[in-house]
């Protein structure tokens, strides 16, 4: 592979990961907190998907993309439920009660969760080391969440925000795997665009019905614009192009930086402090992801010419 293309691919991949890493703090900025709510999680979910859907229509028309076939609609529908609706709604409610840095530790499980779902849905086999890594990573996240719970009270139990974030990870993993199933035939960029367009009959009227009646600060509107234009749409273009130019195996490694970039972004955007315990747990979870990927028997799912389905899930939309 041309070294110039590899370098461009790595930079584009890093750009995509950086865009996705800011999703968590931007979502919290858009929704506010339980004590000082701004835009509702429902409106953020529907509004961001509607904005991305409008941009997707322009892209599909400009590129004269074909319509999905009958066999492609079902996987696209599941991807829509998981990525355009389920994931943003769950993180929106979760971030009302937990910090973006806290959520970043849990979201670090997404690559392994996607591989697990792919192994189950696509009947792909993985070595024992992979499954052990997945279990250890999940145990670390649960341990971190329980540790945080003890700081807020005497009870040792998962907070509601932790449960919602775990649900968001599963939702995204399901959406990515089913989106990946049609990527080889439809094209990676087209999959994301069709997911957003398919959601429009729900997201457009839903955004209108959930439009906020109270005054909302300007920063929350800017944050909504970010997650709609960049997290839900433009970030995938940089990510996919980077994978195509630099190679999936090499470029996909930059996703290991995502939880740390989320933690760092939360400092200026939300005023969160740099907690060494949070960073330590994030390092441990990322290490299990790195080791687990080494034990995977093959990329999940197989790579496509235009972009790798393996990496549909990596970035947090």
Which spans of ≥5 residues are poorly predicted at pLDDT below 50? 298-305, 307-315
Structurally, how many domains make up the residues?
A: 1
Helix content: over 70%
Beta-strand percentage range: under 5%
Query: What value does the average pLDDT take?
Result: 83
Gap between N and C termini: 29 Å
Q: What's the helix count?
A: 13
Molecular shape: globular
Tell me about the largest β-sheet: none
Order of helices and strands: HHHHHHHHHHHHH
Q: How many beta strands in the DSSP annotation? A: 0
Structural class by sheet pairing and helices: mainly alpha
Word description of this protein:
This protein is an all-alpha fold and 317 residues long. The chain has one domain (3-311). Helices cover 74% and strands 0% of the residues. The chain contains 13 helices and no strands. The protein has helices at residues 3-21, 23-31, 41-62, 70-94, 100-107, 110-121, 128-152, 160-186, 188-209, 218-246, 248-251, 258-270, 276-295. Helix 2 packs across helix 4. It is globular and about 55 Å long. Belongs to the EamA transporter family.
